[in-house]
Amino acid sequence: MYIKGNLKKDRKTKNLVKRLRAGDIAIIDHKDIDEIAAISLVESKVKCVLNLNKSISGKYPNKGPSILVDAGIILLESKNKEIFDVVCEGEELEINNNLILYKDKVIGNFEELDSNKIKELLSIGYSNIEKELDKFIENTLEYAKKEKELVLEKGNIPKVKTKINGRHVLVVVRGKDYKKDLLAIQNYISEVKPVLIGVDGGGDALLEFGLTPDILIGDMDSVSDKCLRLSKEIIVHAYTDGRAPGLQRVNALGLDAKIFPSAGTSEDIAFLLAYYNNVDLIVAVGTHSNMIDFLEKGRSGMSSTFLVRLKVGSKLVDAKGVNMLYRSSLKPKYVVGLGIAALIPIIVLTLMFPPMKELIKLIQIRLRILFGFRR
User: Fold this and answer.
1) C-alpha distance from residue 145 to each of 35, 119, 154, 273, 304 (Å)
2) I want to staple 164 with a disulfide (CB 3.0 to 4.6 A). Which of 29, 105, 277, 317 is the partner?
């Protein structure tokens, strides 16, 4: 194996993908590469990913490595963590046989994760899933007892300038299938015009589709400066003691923001914000809905999400459901009927026009001669 290319590095994959270019070698330190990170790397069109951590630890069956390899991206693992501090971004890196070379010096070795190796590691993850599920449920229920105030009290809900009462709200998280879901509900968005709430990087997801967030809510750690400036209203997710690290970034851009202290996730508080402002419907795009989603985010439980879903469940629907219910499909018989109806005035006008009458008679005569019909 021989690979050569410009290297880009970051300990946070979500930050790295913003700087990657086609043909780069991406150096990451990402344990259990998740699906969203893998899709982002694939979209960046890198030629190789060098991970200084375990791409599949065996804790659970994460799909990221399979996505990379299926897309033709070479996935390598190295135990030489010092590589991260040795190399400089933008320089060339060489992969030759089993060696990693930088400025003509060997700085480490690697193991390639091909499809067979990935299957072997995933089988370990599948065998552990029951044990992880037990731990996940126990942790969820334990913390649910402590966090019940999250849904019982609404004193922390900030007042919003956006007119939201009695409207539909679209909450967008840059999670699994967010592009597919947003594309599927374009008609719904253009006709119903819901209030658009972007959760962190979900704000940029809306911008990708030419939509401007009415409200941007979250830690502000994975959203662009452009989105912060364009969003009509900003709410920073804070700790329960009031500390809001993301507020500093917002203020540094000369922007105003409100804070929302909560023990829940940013998407949880987005749902609560909508619910307590008496919206008619909450439509979710890209949100986390199962244990694997939460394990990929590094969470050991989903107590806040469990409680919030119980609270807002009567008004919450997934975008996929909206697409199924909202899209109008014409049956073939209706299409034929519409076609015939459209042709009737054309036929009538044609028959009323004298030259067209003569043309139709000539066509009739030609057809009789052609098929041997006589009067």
Assistant:
1) 31, 38, 17, 22, 10
2) 277
Please report whether residue 136 resides in a domain.
no
Find the DSSP H helices in the chain. 13-16, 35-43, 64-70, 83-86, 115-146, 149-152, 178-184, 186-192, 202-208, 225-230, 245-252, 266-275, 291-296, 303-312, 319-326, 332-352, 354-371
- Average pLDDT across each block of 10 residues of the chain; the chain has 375 residues. List them in order: 95 91 96 91 96 92 94 96 95 94 94 95 87 75 67 75 95 88 90 95 95 96 94 94 92 95 88 94 82 61 73 84 59 56 56 58 66 58
Residue 70, CA distances (Å) to 26, 60, 62, 202 in order: 17, 19, 14, 26
- 343 and 250 in a single domain? The answer is no
* Containing structural domain, residue 361: 335-371
Number of domains in the chain: 3
Instruction: Return the number of other C-beta atoms located less than 10 Å from residue 157's C-beta.
Output: 16
φ and ψ at residue 57, rounded to 5 degrees: -85, -20
CA 27/CA 88 separation, integer angstroms: 11
